[in-house]
């Protein structure tokens, strides 16, 4: 059953979702909730989720979704002004990709599939709390990701990395193939972009990309037919944008 959601505005979106994620109670021992958001640009729930939070527009057309925010120590450094999320490899590499693919950052809500902070260890690799033994937290994760999609109602969801894609596979039957397949298999079967995907009561386009942290090193794992572009993910993201966010030029219709 889909969670019930309220109608929110762009200005209210971050605080609405932050209050909702604070209701998650089944935290596994490896994770803890985010108690305070950092100022400036940062993925939700560590920050506002907006490139320019002060921009007053409608709800974003695009959700950009990673696996989880980071570790407790990295988040504390950001709160203390000793580090910035936007200086991370995730942002540096994603910004280059977004520019090359002409993705409007102001149209995006940057968030994560799994809430909370890792108490220790690395910020990379599969989330240590999102495992079968923590069934209540896994269920809460699925409910909250569904809540995010139904509140934002994005026309395009850009998913960063296979761990985040696995979570989407658990909430959308149309994405079941993403549960086990690797990038080469997804590309070979033309499953990296999925159109008209039902997530709760939202119909959207989904595209899965390499996680930006190691994007250049892992491009060799993509097997996309892009003879005119040396970076296959640029073409992939451009195609997803054209499919989900048609312009006047591509549709011939005045908006």
TrEMBL record:
It comes from the Bacteria. Residues 60-219 form the Uracil-DNA glycosylase-like domain. Pfam families: UDG (PF03167). InterPro entries: Uracil-DNA_glycosylase-like, Uracil-DNA_glycosylase-like_sf. This is Uracil-DNA glycosylase-like domain-containing protein. It comes from Pseudoduganella flava.
